[in-house]
Amino acid sequence: MKPSPTPFQSNRPLVVHGVKVPIKEEEVSSVIWQALQSGNFEAKEAVIVRDLLVPGDRVLELGTGLGVITSVMANTPDVLIWSFDANPNIVALARRVLEANDIRNVEVDQGIFTSGDPDTVTFFIRRDFWMSSLIEEQGLYESTIELDTENLDFFVSTHGINVLVMDIEGAEKSLLAGASLTGVDRIFLELHDHLYGLSGVRSIFNVLSELGFSYEPRTSVGPCVLFQRDDGSVRPYND
Questions:
Q1: 235 found inside a domain
Q2: Quick count: other Cβ atoms within 10 Å of Cβ 40?
Q3: What's the total number of domains in the chain?
Q4: Residue 32 lies in a domain
Q5: I want to staple 195 with a disulfide (CB 3.0 to 4.6 A). Which of 56, 122, 170, 185 is the partner?
Q6: Mean pLDDT across 110-136
Q7: pLDDT at 11
């Protein structure tokens, strides 16, 4: 049975998936606050990432959010994590969460990545921060910011990244389409078929297949999917 989060008090933060979340109700939307209180916030992701990493992994996380999943991953011994979110307000909240949990093996910063040459893009910030994106047509937004992008493969190469974790509200389709991902052996991402349809899902699978990745059915849950390098070995039966 999933443990219930601790009700918020001024001097006692929520605890979600074993992570202290010192965030006040007025700092997030009502939808996100309810998800935090119920323990449903990023629940599928939390289950998957507990078994995703092994000691020594070097992780690039795109879409830090509140840092809850970041914190869960950071509990793996000898793991280093670089985490980026485009929304500066969310970056500030995530840093608060990491500090509250005394996590020291994570670097969190504002940033956004592309698989092409560096560029400047417009990012649309929405009250439900998990709907903030590069897509104006996605719905009403509160504000916009201009961000200079970084090249994904360059960062992966220079930091020795071998695990890529993404929840970037539809941008995964274009990001993966032009990437080489040399050195990466696992990719965990959330699919957003409501933004690019099943054809977009098929495109992501095709691109990753061409790069040597296979869908991991034993770990994936719904839109939260894991891909890993396929070494061609036959796996033991697991009922």
A1: no
A2: 13
A3: 1
A4: no
A5: 170
A6: 92
A7: 61
